[in-house]
Amino acid sequence: MAQVQILLSTWNGEAWLAELLASLNRQSFADWELLVRDDGSQDQTLKIILEWQRAYPYHLAKFITDGEHLGSTQSFSKLVEQSTAPYLMFCDQDDIWFPEKVEFSLAALQKIENERGFCTPILVHTDMAVVDEAKQLAAISFWTMRSFDVEQSKQAYLLTNVVSGCASIFNRAAAERAFPVPYRAMQHDRWLALVCAWFGQVYALPQPLLFYRQHANNQVGAELQSIPSTEIASRVEAWSQQAEVFLQRYGDELTRADYRLVAALAGLQYLKGWERRRHILQHRLFKQGILANIALLLFA
Question: Which InterPro entries does this chain map to (predicted)?
């Protein structure tokens, strides 16, 4: 078994996969293997993966082709459940990894693990360089582009996610603590970051270690600086539902103050209009940034 397993969920990725796989082959750290789950592709994705497997059989540990379309969150959750390595990395089909990505990410995680212990859920995430469809540089720092405060508190993770799955590495303790992902969680990486922030550690490595490619088919992109006003109410519902399943799974382990905070967020889905706004103010359920919170109070 390899020390690091890279988890790749594919879906109609024929335009991007060759470059991604080539970037994995260039990794300076060699003790890794790939777990792939295809989410029901209708293009040449499966053929590309199988051809790569024939060329590099020692790197492809498992290829799941059940044909079911689950969406990225549940597809990645299935991959984590199938994994066995002590360290795991999410991988998006349209990105390009820098050669040092696995090596530097793993070194940072192991340093923290040596300090805090192997039973502590640990997540390390890095910055990313943003490129367009033609690989033209759009931003040297995704974090700067999005004005992220990556040193946020554990409470902030309830509403604001600064962790990108494709830029992350996490240990076995984190995998066992956070997965499988509940169906009402927002995304696999957001849920993982939330769990690690509350019960372990999230560490931000301030170095871009991949090209984060933006194109028309991105599920979650880099370009939007804030949530459109028309989507804020539905996003509040999603935050609230995720908080509710967080309480269901971990409520017995929370302090009284933390339980009240998470329960307050979970309760937002049952309030409307001024009652919802008053509840946000009363319990200080705020996001990063003044403008984001003004928009939250106007359109929640």
Answer: Glyco_trans_2-like, Nucleotide-diphossugar_trans
Cβ–Cβ under 8 Å, residues 178 and 229: no
Which pLDDT belongs to residue 190? 98
What is the predicted pLDDT for the residue at 60?
96
d(CA 287, CA 105): 28
Instruction: Choose one of 157, 183, 213: the last residue of a domain.
Output: 213
pLDDT at 226: 55
Range of the domain at 41: 4-213
Residues 48 and 189 in one domain: yes
Between CA 157 and CA 113 the distance in angstroms is 21
What pLDDT score does 290 carry?
Answer: 85
Token pair 């939007």 in the structure block, residue: 224
Structural element, H or E, at residue 63: strand 60-64
Q: Could you give the C-alpha distances from 8 to 20, 165, 264, in angstroms and in order?
A: 10, 11, 36
At residue 253, φ and ψ (nearest 5 deg) are -100, -5
Same domain (yes/no): 136, 190 = yes
**What pLDDT score does 215 carry?**
72
The pLDDT of residue 254: 98
DSSP-derived secondary structure letter, 89: E
Residues of the chain with pLDDT under 50: 222-225
At 169, list the tokens: 């590495």
Per-residue tokens: 28: 């300076």
Cis peptide before 180 (omega within 30 of 0): yes
Q: Assess contact for 236 and 300: CB atoms under 8 A.
A: yes
